[in-house]
Write a structure and sequence with these properties.
Elements lengths: L11 H5 L11 H10 L13 H10 L8 H14 L4 E8 L8 H17 L3 E8 L10 H11 L6 H17 L5 H14 L1 H12 L5 H4 L26 H9 L3
Parallel strand pairs: 1-2
Helix pairs in contact: 3-4, 4-5, 7-8
């Protein structure tokens, strides 16, 4: 269960909807059926799951409280608890492109959310991951979906592949599938064998998405205007204004 973009960040739901025909507003029965038959589903939050959070989520974007640790913790954990998750894995971003720009704030948020999860009897793990530069090479909904496809085929950027394996490994660990090391190897194996890519296609097809664009990314709709911006001299990039990159894309009129 994912959300839409907030502030300078892009939302998972928005990215999935860049796939032609992809439906994320599906009912409870259809969602459960997809999970039973396919094994996974990506949906948006329904209005009756956590109605208070839906209102607060919208208000945060217009009241300069997007980065409030208590509101972030409540928003994230309320949905996961309400949905009935017995195990919760949290990816807490830290850096110039995250709501938590300092490590201290990221640790504080992670600790609050893990505490909430444990107090209601959920097995909860939080990873603090780097967002001091854009993850991978792409920024933009369909462009990021294209990069996801390449990554789960073992051809994507190494930083994105690593975090995918770390997250998948920890999810398997929470499900008691083995040690962290064994679970990471299991995740790597699904990429090597093509199982991860095939599963993505199954999920998308089950939710009405056109898997033709997943199999051939060149079929994604392209921008009408494409401009190449080249560096005026040789050199090395030493710093990214990651938040600025997000604002340029997700908050521009």
């Amino acid at each position: 269960m994912s959300g839409r973009g907030l502030g300078h960040t892009g939302g998972t739901i928005d990215k999935m909807e860049s796939i032609p025909g992809m439906r994320i507003d599906i009912g409870r029965e259809e969602f459960l059926n997809i999970v039973k038959t396919v094994g996974a589903s990506v949906i948006g939050q329904s209005g009756n799951l956590d109605p208070a959070d839906k209102k607060l989520y919208a208000l945060r974007d217009v009241t300069a409280t997007v980065e409030s640790i208590p509101l972030i913790a409540c928003s994230i954990m309320s949905k996961k608890i309400a949905a009935g998750s017995d195990c919760i894995l949290l990816d807490v971003k830290c850096g110039s492109g995250a709501f938590m720009e300092t490590l201290d704030d990221a640790i504080k948020l992670a600790e609050v959310m893990v505490s909430i999860g444990e107090k209601v009897g959920r097995k909860t793990i939080a990873l603090i991951t780097d967002m001091d530069r854009p993850l991978g090479y792409a920024i933009g909904n369909s462009l990021e979906i294209e990069e996801v496809c390449e990554t789960i085929k073992g051809k994507g950027p190494l930083d994105l592949e690593k975090i995918c394996i770390d997250l998948a490994g920890n999810m398997l660990y929470l499900a008691n599938k083995g040690t962290i090391e064994d679970c990471r190897e299991m995740a790597k194996e699904t990429i090597k064998t093509g199982k991860a890519f095939n599963k993505l296609k199954e999920i998308i097809k089950a939710q009405g998405g056109d898997i033709a664009v997943i199999e051939d990314n060149s079929k994604f709709e392209k921008a009408k205007v494409i401009t190449h911006v080249k560096a005026s001299k040789d050199g090395f990039i030493t710093h990214f204004d990651t938040k600025g990159c997000g604002c340029l894309l997700y908050t521009s009129p």
